[in-house]
């Protein structure tokens, strides 16, 4: 019985990054099976594979930030109320006078 290779084993054998191995396994370019949440590949398939060419990933374009902050003309500054003073609570406040 043969033991199945993990994605980490395949990345070391092929000399490519493990994320590229996962991407190639998911797309079907590398013949592999998924057991639960883990990808496995039989060693005989690695021997049958030729050279794999991994295309570089193109980074997503960044969103442009506005040159100046947007200021609303309708917004008016509000006055901030002063902080409240805590009222001391006594037993007379709770139960009333005797």
Return Rg in Å: 33 Å
**Average pLDDT over all residues:** 80
Q: State the shape.
A: elongated
How far apart, in Å, are the first and last alpha carbons?
90 Å
What level of helicity do the residues show? 25-40%
Which sequence of SSEs, written as H and E, runs from N to C? Answer: EHHEEHH
Low-confidence stretches: none
Discrete helix count: 4
Q: Tell me the number of strands.
A: 3
| Spatial strand order of the main sheet | 1-3-2
Summary keywords:
alpha+beta, three-stranded antiparallel beta sheet, 98 residues, 4 helices
Descriptive account of the structure:
It is elongated, with a radius of gyration of 33 Å. The protein is built from four helices and three strands, in the order βααββαα. α1 packs across α2. A hairpin with a 2-residue loop joins β2 and β3. The protein is an alpha+beta fold. The chain has a three-stranded antiparallel β-sheet. The longest helix has 10 residues. 8% of the residues are buried. The model has no long low-confidence stretch (mean pLDDT 80). The protein has a domain of 44 residues.
């Amino acid at each position: 019985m043969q033991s199945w290779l993990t994605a980490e084993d395949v990345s070391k054998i092929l000399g490519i990054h493990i994320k590229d191995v996962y991407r190639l396994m998911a797309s079907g370019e590398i013949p592999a099976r998924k057991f639960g949440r883990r990808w496995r590949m039989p060693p005989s398939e690695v021997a049958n594979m030729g050279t794999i060419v991994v295309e570089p990933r193109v980074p997503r374009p960044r969103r442009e930030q506005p040159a100046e902050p947007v200021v609303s003309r309708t917004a008016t500054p509000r006055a901030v109320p002063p902080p409240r003073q805590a009222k001391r609570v006594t037993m007379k406040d709770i139960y009333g006078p005797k």
